[in-house]
Amino acid sequence: MAVALLAIGWAVPHGLWVLGVPFGISERELDGIHRDLSTQTGAAITLIRPLVGLLVLGLGQRWGSSSRAGCRDCAVRPSR
Which value, in Å, is the radius of gyration of the alpha carbons in the chain? Predict the structure, then answer.
């Protein structure tokens, strides 16, 4: 759930900026974004970061579960 909120929190404003909607920024800042970025670059910035976040989450869950299963010393031991 947290990853979805982070992905949406990044993608929605950036997507709106690429479309020309001044969501949370001034018109001057939006004009600067459009002057300095192409539409393709803006779309890449909007889409790639959330996708990479989901990929990292998926790989971390998979590797985390497999590394714990093969580790004999991973059990929590009480401190003395």
Answer: 20
Residue 75: which residues within 8 A CB-CB, separation 6 or more? Answer: none
Between helix 39-69 and helix 2-19 the angle, nearest 10°, is 170
Query: What's residue 64's pLDDT?
Result: 60
How many Cβ atoms are within 10 Å of 25's Cβ, its own excluded?
A: 14
The residues, ordered by sequence, that sit 6+ positions from 12 with a Cβ below 8 Å of its Cβ are 23
Enter the pTM of the model: 0.57
Q: Please give the C-alpha separations between residue 21 and each of 4, 28, 43, 54, in angstroms, as whole numbers.
A: 22, 12, 14, 26
* Residue 42 burial (CB count, 10 A): 18
pLDDT digits (tens, 9 = 90+) for 5-60: 777 788 888 888 888 899 999 999 989 888 888 888 888 888 888 888 788 877 77
